[in-house]
Amino acid sequence: MSSVFEAWRDRFERLRANKLFETAVIAIIIISALLIGAKTYEETNRFQQWLLVLDVAVTVFFLVEILIRMAAERRLRDFFRRGWNIFDFLIVTASLIPMDDSEMVLLARLLRIFRVLRLVSMIPELRLLLVALIKSIPRMGYVALLMFIIFYIYAAIGSFLFADIDDFLWGNISIAMLTLFRIATFEDWTDVMYATQEVYAWSWIYYLTFIFLTAFIFLNMMIGIVLDVMQKESVQMEIESGEGEAAELHGLRSDVRELRDQLTRMEALLERRS
Amino acid sequence: MSSVFEAWRDRFERLRANKLFETAVIAIIIISALLIGAKTYEETNRFQQWLLVLDVAVTVFFLVEILIRMAAERRLRDFFRRGWNIFDFLIVTASLIPMDDSEMVLLARLLRIFRVLRLVSMIPELRLLLVALIKSIPRMGYVALLMFIIFYIYAAIGSFLFADIDDFLWGNISIAMLTLFRIATFEDWTDVMYATQEVYAWSWIYYLTFIFLTAFIFLNMMIGIVLDVMQKESVQMEIESGEGEAAELHGLRSDVRELRDQLTRMEALLERRS
Amino acid sequence: MSSVFEAWRDRFERLRANKLFETAVIAIIIISALLIGAKTYEETNRFQQWLLVLDVAVTVFFLVEILIRMAAERRLRDFFRRGWNIFDFLIVTASLIPMDDSEMVLLARLLRIFRVLRLVSMIPELRLLLVALIKSIPRMGYVALLMFIIFYIYAAIGSFLFADIDDFLWGNISIAMLTLFRIATFEDWTDVMYATQEVYAWSWIYYLTFIFLTAFIFLNMMIGIVLDVMQKESVQMEIESGEGEAAELHGLRSDVRELRDQLTRMEALLERRS
Amino acid sequence: MSSVFEAWRDRFERLRANKLFETAVIAIIIISALLIGAKTYEETNRFQQWLLVLDVAVTVFFLVEILIRMAAERRLRDFFRRGWNIFDFLIVTASLIPMDDSEMVLLARLLRIFRVLRLVSMIPELRLLLVALIKSIPRMGYVALLMFIIFYIYAAIGSFLFADIDDFLWGNISIAMLTLFRIATFEDWTDVMYATQEVYAWSWIYYLTFIFLTAFIFLNMMIGIVLDVMQKESVQMEIESGEGEAAELHGLRSDVRELRDQLTRMEALLERRS
User: Fold this and answer.
1) Rounded CA gap, C68 and C86, in Å?
2) Would the CB atoms of B249 and D249 count as touching at under 8 Å?
3) How far is CA B105 from the centre of its chain?
4) CATH architecture of A127-241
């Protein structure tokens, strides 16, 4: 019984490592993405029956594929050890939710969209890119916190002063933060300013200091990240090439010291004889 | 009497250095920030009594906290020597202003918002970040002055030529500078241009030269700052690592020169004997 | 017969290499560009006859010029080996399409515009610039793919949720991608958001996460490209200058080792005699 | 007679080099700038008499100042050799134009605005900054030309296709170029696109390719400039510090070679004797 099981596992393992199988999975992911896109066109309503069949086929294929990959592992725990496997597993199981209820149809549809993300887990270059992006998040942490504090203070001031002028833009602190984000993207910010200037003529100070502060911190953050990355790169390069030069120099010096010792011995010999 | 006083000071000092006390202060700052945010929601009107109580509690806590930190110092002067202490002291005393008058309520509220800034003085990483930001201001000084001169000249031209066309945008030189800042952020700048083009068809030259000049100077400023920071970093690195290599080389050379002297002595010995 | 042909080919070759001929070609390209520009002014309608004559003259000139360059080659295949020649050939032949039909007039006109691109193939500096630009495309490849996946997912979600709110902006997945591109350029994005917020109050999350994601990836892409270019430059510089220093160090070390061998021989001589 | 003249010239020279005199000039420039600004306020109409008097005073002061600087030179030709002197001379003489005619008043006013630019020629740091800015223009030359070609081609296509849809935006090639510049700044570009999409549904390709091309070339230009500046800086640094290290290495090697010659001589001595 066990040998039959192992023979199957070997087959699954070979299948998983097969380049053709990988290409097929990527093709199915792209088909699944096109399917989702096609559904958004009203003209495809008359092919709805076909789309549904294709959708079920894709779902079944993904289920089979992940089961094959699970079966290919020696222990099921190994499968869940790699983050990308958990990522795939969640996406596939999420799209298995039945869609009877009309409310649920929308949710099921939305969950199926995330299948496109499986492209990222299938293509190694995209995987590397995403890992690099995620790694660059923490170094923005404290700057993001500082930015949030500035947004919070300005939003509080804004909603205290301007709430009576325009409730839609400055009604409460969270609405005010959204309005401030809009101002930070320069989106019709003068309209917002002109409205408040009618009551508080000096309110341009509020907007200009906010724009300068956020732009200034953002600029500094960008430069900081560039320098941070560059410093790491140069340390890397030093280990690879620079260390070699330093080692060479160090070796040279000990060679020269050996020469001196040899000379000292020879001089002693010469002096003894004379 | 004095020993009682000193015993208390020691207690306060230990309390100030206590990690738990610090965390508590940060928690209270966050609560105070949330309190300020909560007041901007109309739904919180029925909890107004509670909010007021909490507000007073926070104010008292901050007062006690700063008094503890003052008492922990050997002399009161030492407390005011550190900039961040003065920063905290001003924020706390400002929020003590009584709020009887309706006009004063607004001011008192605004002053309380700045309590959120105490987060910056409490978290060392944010403190470092802010110091770094403040340090980067002077190197922008002369570029900012040049930018201001360009804004001033364009604003003067703008208000001379276009004041009759649109008094709201070009009425006087300060309004014109605000309009120019709006144009520099690309905010509906074409609307401003099309309006003046109806009278002065060639006014697009005014707008395009302004946009090119400010963008060009801004770009150069950014590149300048990046290079400035990088140069400082590389000088820093040279002191740390490069100096080592140069010193190594210098040492090597003097070693080799010693060898020569030794050889010269030996050669003289040999020649004398032959 | 053949010698006559060869004599002509030599003449064409000399003509092609002639600096004056080159300048004339550039001048004609600029005239052709101005001609195209002039036709867009309604005031030039009464010179239409003259413009037509000039247009034919320019077309004939370009035809003759490319024939001369073809005739100057030893074999016609050599002419088509260089990419820029194919580029010129396509532009010139495309503008030879007869323009009888009114529909064709528009197409012929459009094709003639691309003659301006011949400036790029004529000026070596522009040619170098374009080659550099084309070379920088592949390094953006996978980031562009990741960006496309994000756009696709957001567009699918957008058209599922918001299609009923605004068919013009979110009607199907391709319209939604255009709307998302608009949002990525901050173009009146708040209008789009406020419209959907009336139905889905929480839809600001959709917009903010999208803006942060695209801005974040774009920023990382930019930094990545800068670092990529810089790394290549530094490798280049190492080959040019750094290698010299390393070689110098290596030579020094082998010199010192030779010294040691010499000294060892001498020490042996001295010891044998004592 | 000549000695009297020379005594005066010395006095002028000392005055020109006087720090107080320089500060006074800067102060007068700032007053002149404020005067220009003040005139744009309608409230200042009743002080018009005073403003006129002040204006004349400033004009006279500038005239006297430039005459002093001229008189301080040994020969008048020396004065016009420095670019900044010509710059000052033009600004001062331009503001001397009489303003009788109402038309001329406007021109005279505009010319007076440029007096603010004298701040740049007076403050050495601003002078350095401006020289650096002017030096950075040529390295943008060919990229600007390429950008212009792209704008020209797109403007020609735009005015051919869209002139009938919106004459105000696409009427002729120069208007179309202005519209394209507006699109490049993302200023309400979707409004322009939606208008043309009603006739040519596929016109989004026109806008998207244009935006990608200009953004792409602009990005490359920026990176190119940064790298260009950095390369120059690193060459500079190599000359200053790196050369020292290379020279040190070179010296070391010739020292070691001298050692070898010495040793070879000694070995010959030893061998001769044995």
Assistant:
1) 15
2) yes
3) 29
4) Orthogonal Bundle (1.10)
Of the candidates A166, A18, B249, B259, which has an alpha carbon nearest to the alpha carbon of residue D259?
Answer: B259
Which residues in chain A are contacts of B119 at CB distance < 8 A?
149
The answer, yes or no, to whether ipTM is higher than 0.90 is no
Long-range Cβ pairs for the range C214-218 (8 Å, 24+): C214/C147, C214/C150, C214/C151, C214/C184, C216/A133, C217/A133, C217/C143, C217/C146, C217/C147, C217/C150, C218/C147
What letter would DSSP give residue C100? -
Q: In whole angstroms, give the CA distance from residue C53 to residue B8.
A: 103
Ranges of each domain in chain A:
2-122, 127-241
Report d(CA B217, CA B143) in Å as an integer: 8
Of the residues C167, C174, C185, the best mutation for testing chain D's interface (the one with the most D CB atoms within 10 Å of its CB) is: C185
Are residues A143 and A224 in contact, defined by beta-carbon separation less than 8 angstroms? yes
Say what angle helices A141-162 and A173-184 make with each other, to 10 degrees.
110
pLDDT in tens, chain A (274 residues): 567 777 877 877 787 777 888 888 889 889 888 888 888 888 777 787 888 888 888 888 888 888 888 888 778 788 888 888 888 888 888 877 766 666 667 777 788 888 888 888 888 888 888 887 787 777 778 888 889 999 999 999 999 889 889 889 998 899 999 999 999 999 889 999 999 999 988 899 999 999 988 887 877 777 666 666 666 666 666 565 555 566 667 777 777 877 878 778 877 777 777 6
Fold equal for C2-122 and C127-241: no
State which fold the B2-122 domain adopts. Four Helix Bundle (Hemerythrin (Met), subunit A) (1.20.120)
List alpha helices for D114-140, DSSP H: 118-122, 124-135
Of A106, A123, A226, the CB nearest to C223: A226
**Closest C-alpha to C133, from D221, B79, B37, A44:** D221
